[in-house]
């Protein structure tokens, strides 16, 4: 399948990792961030496309993998070339970055340029994640819920690949922070306790809870949050 700009697109995360970095469909570029990789000053690229439709997603504009990118990879190259000594690294975020076959080449290029490589992922594509892990220094992995509640958040399933991805990251020994956004419309106190225990049992040492942000979410979701507040 090809995008409107004639470049191969990794929809479905089945790319073999041999596409060039210029094939990346980039929805946005943040030139400086101190929060996308804890303790590091980074630039962050947001890659187009995600297979999930999470209740609390505030990135709805970048979910459709058929939408072409708006930032050429060359702009990222140029930025990094100017920021030697100022930036620690580049974070690939999304969307779901492992959907795109150009990710491996891009990560290799960033590292070869002397920068660290960070990756935000929900773990939807364990095989694609495994291909890029040797070229990644840090992973921010979203684990959204205990497996039984995954679909209530993503509305596209995903528990099996997400926990498989967690296993692969832990087995690879890559520095990882597992993050869980607490969706109060799905996760109650028992589910939070259950997930914390499950992650600890799997060997996760760095797990952070995040509050849902209302900004950018759908009006229906904001109404469901309001309904919860009204009831309490
Ligand atoms: S995985 Fe992230 S980008 Fe994809 S729908 Fe969920 S919150 Fe949005």
From TrEMBL:
SUPFAM superfamilies: Radical SAM enzymes. Residues 37-232 form the Radical SAM core domain. InterPro entries: Aldolase_TIM (IPR013785), NrdG2 (IPR012840), Organic_radical-activating (IPR034457), rSAM (IPR007197), rSAM_sf (IPR058240). Keywords: 4Fe-4S, Iron, Iron-sulfur, Metal-binding, S-adenosyl-L-methionine. Its cofactor is [4Fe-4S] cluster. It comes from the Bacteria. PANTHER family: GLYCYL-RADICAL ENZYME ACTIVATING ENZYME YJJW-RELATED, PYRUVATE FORMATE-LYASE-ACTIVATING ENZYME. NCBIfam families: NrdG2. This is Anaerobic ribonucleoside-triphosphate reductase activating protein. It comes from Cellulomonas edaphi.
């Amino acid at each position: 399948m090809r995008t409107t700009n004639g470049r191969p697109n990794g929809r479905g995360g089945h790319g073999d990792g041999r596409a060039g970095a210029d094939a990346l469909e980039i929805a946005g570029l943040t030139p400086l961030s101190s929060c996308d990789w804890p303790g590091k000053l980074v630039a962050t690229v947001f890659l187009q496309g995600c297979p999930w439709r999470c209740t609390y997603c505030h990135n709805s504009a970048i979910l459709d993998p058929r939408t072409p990118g708006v930032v050429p990879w060359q702009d990222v190259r140029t930025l990094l070339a100017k920021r030697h000594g100022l930036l620690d690294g580049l974070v690939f975020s999304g969307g779901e970055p492992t959907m795109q076959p150009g990710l491996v080449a891009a990560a290799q290029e960033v590292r070869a340029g002397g920068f660290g490589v960070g990756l935000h992922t929900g773990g939807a594509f364990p095989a694609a994640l495994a291909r890029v892990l040797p070229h990644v220094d840090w992973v921010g992995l979203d684990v959204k819920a205990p497996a039984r509640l995954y679909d209530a958040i993503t509305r596209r399933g995903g528990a099996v690949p997400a926990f498989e991805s967690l296993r692969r990251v832990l087995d690879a020994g890559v520095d990882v922070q597992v993050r869980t956004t607490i969706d109060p419309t799905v996760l109650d106190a028992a589910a939070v306790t259950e997930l914390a225990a499950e992650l600890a049992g799997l060997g996760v040492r760095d797990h952070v809870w995040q509050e849902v942000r209302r900004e950018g979410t759908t009006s229906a979701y904001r109404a469901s949050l309001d309904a919860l507040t009204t009831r309490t």
